[in-house]
Amino acid sequence: MITDREVLSTLEMLRSEHLDVRTVTLGVSLFDCAHQDPAQFCNRVRSKVARIAGELVKICDEVGLRYGIPVVNKRVAVSPIAVSACFHSPEEMAQVARVLDETAMEIGVDFIGGFSALVEKGMTLGDHALIEAIPEALASTRRVCASVNVASTRAGINMDAVRLMGKTIQRASQLTADADGVACAKLCVFANIPQDIPFMAGAYLGVGEPDTVINVGVSGPGVVRKAIDRARSANPHLDLGRLADIIKRTAFKVTRVGELIGREVAEKLRVPFGVVDLSLAPTPNVGDSVGEIFQSLGLKSIGVPGSTAVLAMLNDAVKKGGVFASSYVGGLSGAFIPVSEDLNIAEAAGRGILTLEKLEAMTSVCSVGLDMVAIPGDTAPETIAAIIADEMAIGVINNKSTAARLIPVPGKRPGEKAFFGGLLGEAIIIPVSPHNGSTEFIRLGGRIPAPVQSFSN
User: Fold this and answer.
1) Could you tell me if residue 241 is left (phi over 0), alpha (psi between -120 and 50 degrees) or otherwise beta?
2) Which site from 56, 240, 282, 364 is most exposed, i.e. has the minimal number of CB atoms within 10 Å?
3) pLDDT classification of 129: cutoffs 50, 70, 90
């Protein structure tokens, strides 16, 4: 039973604490669209996505209005294009991306994910073609997002793919130099990528998923911060254990809201409901910041000593509350620390409090990784690859999902600002070590073997 107090608490979250459903993402399988003729494949893709997702935006708006809970983003995720379009050349795959972009615009969704490849153990011809197509595909589209999984705890780290992604990111940046390398903001390099992420840029529909499915991403960093502030105001002597319990209870409420909306949308679309992703995903709006939670918990700023411990506590409390609220939890689930998408985190980076090295340390306990990190445009591809390799190692050894979304900003140096617009926000360029000492290591290539903890059978 829901008490009057819980109803009033949820209403207050909606009124003044930025509670929303951050994304409803409709997964659409494209495996039955496969065809050796690229024109036929594109026609099948356009037809299926439009048919299944054509009512998504309308239904999300109707359900959000009915409950008074806004659905901020409506998105589509498709099967990995490297698999469904494995017959095609890089040029033809770039054309597939443009068709996806046009279809997304026609049905009114914000992003469409799944321009993706899974290459943790090796690369097929389709994988090679897709990765080669990524720079042109992302530079010539607005809504298409790409992801490449280059590592897993079971397989190790494909260093040939890591090296290739360093070059791919640099090329994508150069093709969008007039927009601060924004193509790279739509590209994630993963270790242990889940099959059911609703958040971009990593969203795709995994090979073990249904033909169609609704996955929901909830958020609520502002709600969590307000709950902590209220509790500490009422009792300044609360310790971290009791504050963790407050975060857990708040995450429970947020998750229940997300599942309510997701199930209603799925029912109206006549597709299965998949998972709720519990991630605290910030925006550039004031009061909707993960970084502010660190201040509410007693730190002067995210990035100072103690930040990794706070993030570990926050991540764990969110997961505990969400898992109790729903039997279908998936995606990444935890706390995101995207530098450009969170005003407080961007300010900490701009003041030099949050460095690349501290960010990397914090990714060992967060949900995603080096997310939306702007770096100097002249950073060598081998250095970019080495940063990715370090991040992949954290995911592989800790048996967790992690990713790198790095944005080399052409023509800009540390301390200057990059502007990406909208949800992607803006960021200060973070310095990278000037010692380019990784080149020989990256050029060795091969595959770093899976760690001993992978032998779990």
Assistant:
1) alpha
2) 240
3) very high
CA distance 222 to 368: 19
Output the pLDDT for position 409. Answer: 95
Exposed / middle / buried, residue 311 (Cβ in 10 Å: 0-12, 13-18, 19+): buried
Residue with tokens 């995207």: 338
Q: Mean pLDDT, to the nearest integer, of 378-404?
A: 94
The span from the CA of 254 to the CA of 217, in Å, is 10
CA distance 86 to 30: 12
Query: CA separation (Å) from 50 to 14, 98, 109?
Result: 32, 14, 11
CA distance 238 to 336: 25
Mean pLDDT of the chain: 89
Show the tokens assigned to 453: 């903890």
Give phi and psi for 332, each to the nearest 5. Answer: -95, -50
Q: Residues 278, 259: contact at Cβ < 8 Å?
A: no
Of 411, 439, 415, which Cα lies nearest the Cα of 428? Answer: 415
Helix (H) or strand (E) holding 125: helix 125-139
The reported pTM is: 0.91
SS3 string, 309-345, reads HHHHHHHHHHHHHHHHHCCCECCCCCECCCCCCCHHH
Question: CA 113 to CA 79: how far, in whole Å?
Answer: 9
| Strands 212-218, 21-28: pairing kind | antiparallel
User: In this model, does residue 109 exceed pLDDT 70?
Assistant: yes
CB atoms closer than 10 angstroms to residue 356:
18
Reported confidence tier of residue 333, pLDDT bands at 50, 70, 90: confident
pLDDT at 4: 46
Residue 3 has pLDDT above 60, yes or no: no
User: Residue 371 to residues 36, 296, 412: CA-CA distances in angstroms?
Assistant: 36, 22, 19
pLDDT band at 15 (very low <50, low <70, confident <90, very high): low
* Domains defined for the chain, CATH in brackets: 27-191 (3.20.70.20), 217-442 (3.20.70.20)
Phi, psi of 125 (to 5 degrees): -60, -40
Answer yes or no: is pLDDT of 195 > 80: yes
Exposed/middle/buried for residue 236 (C-beta within 10 Å: 0-12, 13-18, 19+): exposed
In the three-class reduction of DSSP (H, G, I as helix; E, B as strand; rest coil), residue 372 is classed as: strand
End-to-end CA distance of the chain: 41
At which residue do the structure tokens 């080669």 appear? 132
Q: Residue 427: what are its φ and ψ, rounded to 5°? A: -150, 150
